[in-house]
Amino acid sequence: MSILNGPARSMSLAPADLAKEGAHFDLPIAVGLMAVSRQAEAGDLDQCEFLGELSLTGRLRSIKGALPPSFGGVMLADD
């Protein structure tokens, strides 16, 4: 199932001089598209941290080393 069940969308990956190689932007782009297509409420996403790798099938895959960043998110939430 496509996450884009509506009109065509475009996304700016500015600034142009920043290298955009690899899959570093796949997950943020997918989350942004879900918010724009209202499959996830943008207000609900404000308090979320996404760590992982987006597979070619669109599933979120786990990554090594996710524990330390998750502690940082908890610490920020407590402030």
Q: How do you describe this structure in short?
A:
With 79 residues, the chain is mainly alpha-helical.
Compute the number of helices.
3
**Unreliable stretches covering 5 or more consecutive residues:** none
Domain count: the total is 1
Report strand %.
5-15%
Radius of gyration: 14 Å
| Largest sheet data | 2 strands, antiparallel
- Shape by Cα distribution: globular
What is the mean predicted local confidence, pLDDT? 75
What does this structure look like?
The structure is a single chain. With 79 residues, the protein is mainly α. It has one domain. Helix content is 34%, strand content 5%. A two-stranded antiparallel sheet has the order 1-2. Strand 1 and strand 2 form a beta hairpin. The longest helix is centred in the C-terminal third of the chain and has 12 residues. The protein starts with 25 loop residues before the first helix and ends with a helix. The model has no long low-confidence stretch (mean pLDDT 75).
Entry keywords:
79 residues, mainly alpha, two-stranded antiparallel sheet, 2 strands, globular
